[in-house]
Design goal:
Layout: H1 6-13, E1 31-36, H2 40-49, E2 53-55, E3 58-63, H3 79-86, E4 91-96, H4 112-143, H5 147-164, H6 176-183, E5 194-199, H7 210-218, E6 226-229, H8 231-238, H9 243-253, H10 259-270, E7 273-279, E8 283-290, H11 295-302, H12 304-308, E9 310-316, H13 318-324, H14 327-332, E10 337-339, E11 350-355
Parallel strand pairs: 2-8, 4-5, 5-6
Antiparallel strand pairs: 1-3, 7-8, 9-10, 9-11
The protein binds guanosine-5'-triphosphate and magnesium ion (MG).
């Protein structure tokens, strides 16, 4: 929705600055920022290795224009934004959960559950167009008796029925094989993982409020995370100069860390990503890989040559690195693992790749 605090949130998260103001459709062109993923393990590794530099993992975040009722048919700023959403890997859906008569709500009053439904419907309508377009082709092929086409038609009809009754694609019951073969490639917007961000006022930063409870109840069967964040207040905190000032402010709110830090970590999980580390004296660095990546695939994130010429990986568990204190001590203790091509890299592994080019 317009004017709910998306750009304000973007400004809390990213070093890039978006314009935020109290009028709907303040944002037109999307703002794109890079966000460091906060990771306490990286701080620990830095202490132990004392490298020249430290590079955290990052995620890209896009702040888009608000959608309104009818957006799928071109209302408001219309279709273009649906395009912006299509390009992302996951959605952070910001819901206004604060009262403030001075801040305009496009639909007249604060009602996050209605807002969520409004947006869901627009996205579902867009997906309905996508599935109907595809179905036209598939139906023709199915009529000629093509077995694959018949299978696809059945799967897509389920999607169509689901969307027509207001269910997002991610929640429609489909066989995994149908998803892999037929729906993944259509890149439905409502198939993307989603996380709800309830934007509350300062007093509700730690505890949430009644609006948040209503949101939680509505999404209970969605298996989606609901985060509570006092976006406006956190934006004020980021303006403070020193770490101590920011900590004090957070303590007053009853928080241990900014909600935005938690949000970034949750988003990273939502994307089904995790981290391995390289820890040399030149550089300690967090690398991002999809959960389930093999050692060569993980190496390929550093450089394609590392993947092509992969020989083996030397792996230190993060906890061993910390308890023994250095790579040398880990080796002495016989805790250095030597792994081949099949090894599935685990979150927190400290890796060293052997390869030839
Ligand atoms: N009271 C209060 N105001 C807020 C909060 N978060 C944002 N605002 C104000 O709400 C107005 C809109 O915020 P934006 O971040 O520009 O909203 P947006 O969702 O990006 O809006 P569009 O770009 O128009 O879609 C600004 O005046 C913000 O200062 C909040 O938590 N509490
Ligand atoms: Mg905006």
């Amino acid at each position: 929705m317009p004017n709910v605090g998306k750009s304000t949130l973007f400004n809390c998260l990213s070093n890039a600055k978006a314009q935020s103001a109290n009028f709907p459709f303040c944002t037109i062109e999307p703002n794109i920022g890079v966000v460091n993923v906060p990771d306490a393990r990286l701080v620990k590794l830095e202490e132990l290795v004392n490298p020249e530099r430290v590079l955290p993992a990052t995620v890209d975040i896009v702040d888009i224009a608000g959608l309104v009722k009818g957006a799928s048919k071109g209302e408001g700023l219309g279709n273009q934004f649906l395009g912006n959403i299509r390009e992302t890997d996951a959605i952070l859906h910001v819901l206004r959960c604060f009262d403030d008569d001075n801040i305009v709500h496009v639909d007249g009053n604060v009602d996050p559950v209605r807002d969520k439904e409004t947006i869901d419907i627009e996205l579902q309508l867009k997906d309905l167009e996508t599935v109907e377009k595809r179905l036209e082709k598939v139906k023709r092929a199915a009529r000629t008796g093509d077995k694959e086409a018949v299978k696809e038609q059945n799967a897509l009809l389920k999607v169509q029925n689901g969307l027509e009754s207001g269910i997002s694609v991610r929640a429609i019951e489909l066989a995994d094989s149908d998803r892999r073969e037929f729906t993944d490639q259509l890149q439905f917007i409502t198939d993307k993982p989603v996380m709800y961000v309830c934007n509350v006022d300062e007093a509700a930063a730690a505890t949430g409020n009644e609006y948040v409870e209503l949101v939680k109840a509505t999404v209970a069967d969605e298996n989606a995370e609901v985060l509570v964040l006092a976006v406006g207040t956190e934006a004020d905190i980021t303006e403070l100069d020193t770490f101590e000032e920011r900590q004090m402010f957070l303590e007053d709110l009853g928080l241990e860390e900014p909600g935005s830090a938690k949000l970034i970590r949750s988003a990273y999980q939502l994307l089904n990503l995790h981290t391995y580390f390289t820890a040399g004296v030149k550089e300690v660095r967090a690398w991002t890989i999809p959960v389930g990546s093999t050692a060569p695939q993980a190496a390929g994130v550093i450089h394609t040559d590392f993947e092509k010429g992969f020989i083996r990986a030397e792996v230190i568990k993060y906890s061993d690195f910390v308890s023994f204190g250095s790579e040398a001590k880990v080796k002495e203790a016989g805790k250095l693992g030597v792994e081949g091509k099949e090894y599935i890299v685990q979150d927190g592994d400290v890796m060293h790749f052997r390869f030839n080019v």
